[in-house]
Specification:
Length: 466
């Protein structure tokens, strides 16, 4: 089979391309710009070009795969349509690949990449094994894909953007969060939550739904937010999926089926006790990671235990989990400076990362560099971004990374900057950043964003090491 990928450099697309390439199919593709990931794909033997030029399309394409990020006026896309070459969205192809497997799908507006990577690592460390399609580069695999044809399990990161996750019909589903996001697609928070409800309803009738406590609560101002009615609302939404076994988890509270207890840190590592429906597992360890990953670990542990892993396998797997690139990713860890890079691009994610830094380094001077992602997200959540960034000692904003969007009049990073109620805030270009950072004398430096800020990380690391 000859596959062609439009947007092959995307994290989800590259995973599919790698899968077909490892299976022995012919794979090639287009992306707008080179990146470390596309260079790695080329090193693995996948042909990629970077000009939107129909003359560069292979003649014998049997299936073309594309993402919603590819604009309708893309010349190659239009040519493929004119040639009547079969075109499929990435999510459709992923849905077909997982249909005959025991699919474990992890959805949520944040936390899904680390949680799915943890689950894949735990299963791989056991006799069960798994294949996996991940939304980040898991350091244990040095890849976003794992292929194990002998295992019945396939772990998938289920993306809510463009309702892609509705192509999946999992046997086990995890929902980590349903905070308002992608309102350019959904319009309202309630519509987003409705999509997650539909995803939950697609779990196999004999499967398991594992949800963070409070997942299906809405936060519209017109709703009654009294505790009793909120609990009833949440309970009734959970009960709508009675055809599946439903388990709840939380990092805060003791009412769920799975929750952590006695969380502490020592020697750069986190430790916690895990309460499960069958008892307590004491002294689980996460190595060199963020506080918020305790919650992700609880979800991953719930999946692993439900899949039959024992306490020893769980303990060893969590301790040996190395994390995901660009998720609380240590670049420098010395007495003089700690530099952490993170993909956080939603206010809730930013707040969680900064909370983790403050927990681990309570007396250190924290400098945060944030590149907003998308004009619509900046417009919709400017107040929340400002609140999330406030705990930092110094805040630096870069220009908005537009991705697939056209500019919106009046929406710039200054919309966030003006709402930050402190003097220690800056807006600068990428070029100015390298002059500014040394002058801020950080004890802890944090770079945040889902755009191309990751391409600055090596230069920032070199600068701050010098």
């Amino acid at each position: 089979m000859n596959y062609y990928f439009l947007g092959i450099g995307g994290i989800g697309m590259s995973a599919l391309a790698r899968f077909f390439h490892q299976r022995g199919d012919r794979v090639s593709g287009y992306d707008r710009t080179p990146s470390p990931l596309t260079r790695q794909l080329e090193a693995e033997g996948i042909a990629i070009h970077y000009d939107d030029n129909p003359d560069l399309l292979p003649e014998d394409i049997q299936l073309a795969v594309y993402t919603p990020a590819i604009p309708a006026d893309n010349a190659e896309l239009q040519t493929l349509q004119q040639r009547n070459i079969p075109l499929r969205k990435r999510a459709e192809v992923l849905g077909e690949l997982t249909r005959d497997k025991c699919c474990i799908a992890v959805a949520g507006t944040h936390g899904k990449t680390t949680t799915s990577s943890m689950i894949a690592h735990l299963l791989r460390q056991s006799d069960e094994g798994c294949s996996a399609f991940l939304g980040g580069i898991c350091k244990n695999f040095d890849s976003n894909i794992v292929v194990d044809p002998k295992s019945r399990y396939v772990v998938v990161e289920a993306d809510e953007y463009d309702r892609s996750f509705l192509q999946l019909h999992p046997h086990v589903a995890v929902i980590t969060a349903t905070d308002a996001d992608h309102l350019d697609i959904y319009g309202t928070h309630e519509c987003l939550i409705d999509a997650f409800r539909q995803f939950a309803s697609q779990v196999d009738s004999d499967g398991t739904l594992i949800v963070k406590e409070g997942t299906f609560q809405t936060h519209n101002e017109e709703e009654d937010t009294h505790n009793n009615e909120t609990e009833h609302h949440n309970h009734s939404n959970i009960q709508a999926f009675r055809h599946s076994s439903i388990l709840k988890y939380t990092a805060h509270g003791i009412e769920a089926d799975y929750y952590p207890w006695n969380v502490r840190h020592y020697g750069g590592n986190l430790f916690f006790d895990l309460r499960t429906p069958k008892g307590v597992i004491y002294d689980l360890q996460l190595s060199h990671t963020a506080l918020y990953n305790v919650e992700n670990a609880v979800a991953a542990a719930a999946v692993a235990l439900e899949c039959g892993l024992n306490e020893h396998q769980l303990r060893a797997g969590l301790k040996s989990f190395l994390g995901v690139r660009r998720r609380f990713d240590y670049q420098i860890d010395s007495k003089e400076l700690v530099y952490i890079d993170d993909y956080a691009h939603h206010p809730q994610e930013i707040a969680a990362v900064i909370e983790s830094v403050r927990y681990l380094y309570p007396d250190k001077r924290l400098v945060v560099v944030f590149q907003p992602h998308l004009y619509t997200r900046t417009r919709d959540f400017a107040d929340q971004f400002a609140d999330a960034l406030m705990p930092a000692d110094e805040i630096v904003l870069l220009p908005i990374y537009p991705a697939r969007e056209e500019p919106i009049l009046g929406v710039t990073s200054h919309r966030i900057l003006h709402k930050i109620d402190k003097m220690s805030k800056y807006y600068c270009s990428v070029e100015q950043l390298f002059e500014l950072l040394p002058a801020l004398y950080p004890d802890v430096l944090l770079t945040l964003g889902a755009g191309d800020i990751d391409r600055l990380v090596p230069k920032i690391k070199d600068l701050m090491t010098e």
